[in-house]
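W.,

You were right to be curious about this one. When I first looked at the sequence I had no strong expectations either way, so I just let the prediction run and decided to look at it fresh. Below is the sequence, 258 residues in total, followed by the output.
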Amino acid sequence: MINDILTMIWKENLEYSNQSKNLREKITGMIFPFLSLGLLAIVPPLSLGSDWIKSPFSLVISILVPLITVTMSIPLSLVGERERKTLETLFASRLPDRAILFGTMFPPIIRASKISFFVHLVSLVTYNIAQWSGNLSFYPSEILFANLATIILLSISAASLGVLVSLQTTSLRQAMNYLNAILMAPVIIFGIAIYLIGNVFPDPWRVAFENWFEKEVMTANFQQVFTTISFVLLLITLILLVLVLLRFKRSLVKPDCS
């Protein structure tokens, strides 16, 4: 079983490295890392100062990077196999269903984790250069653990959801659109809400929100809040994993496109 999973991981990594054939995909693949580094790893540490490492703001990296990375990766596996008309060949092999499943999920999870860790590293380097005081600064233990847990749980959840969506779609574009709608919609809605409160809604609404944020959010016990959020996220992750294990069977997967 282990060797079968490793075989699938090798296959997925090889195919992923050969995916960016056209100019659009190459440009997208080049722009995303620079945007991630600029918008997530350089600008926030410079703008927030010490709050970047002492507060939960760094969780933005641990939320956005795994979601975006997995959304761009998972559909290339199952739906990509279907569009290349090689899915039936894969399912006709001796590889068991679980090996194909885990071999499909692990590469995007590992890729999302590696990119997230790298972006965090760049943000810490940026912070230390900008705020140099003679000693290296790092995340406090509770912030470090929160980032690690968020990266791992979100990567697994997004990969599981990506497999479920891929099983129900017949084109790569459709799968990526569905995943973007499901995974990124809450983030986009939150960003729009913050923009409206700060720039569109009447001043009394903005002041009321700022007062509530300072009194309730900024003074909340971070460990208690994150423990609750982690438990909910862990529960969601387990549910999605169970659904994937039950749903991923050769007999239930849609055939190749005609």
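Here's what jumped out at me. The chain has one domain: 2-252. And, maybe more interesting for your project: The chain has a mean pLDDT of 81.

Coffee later to discuss?

I.
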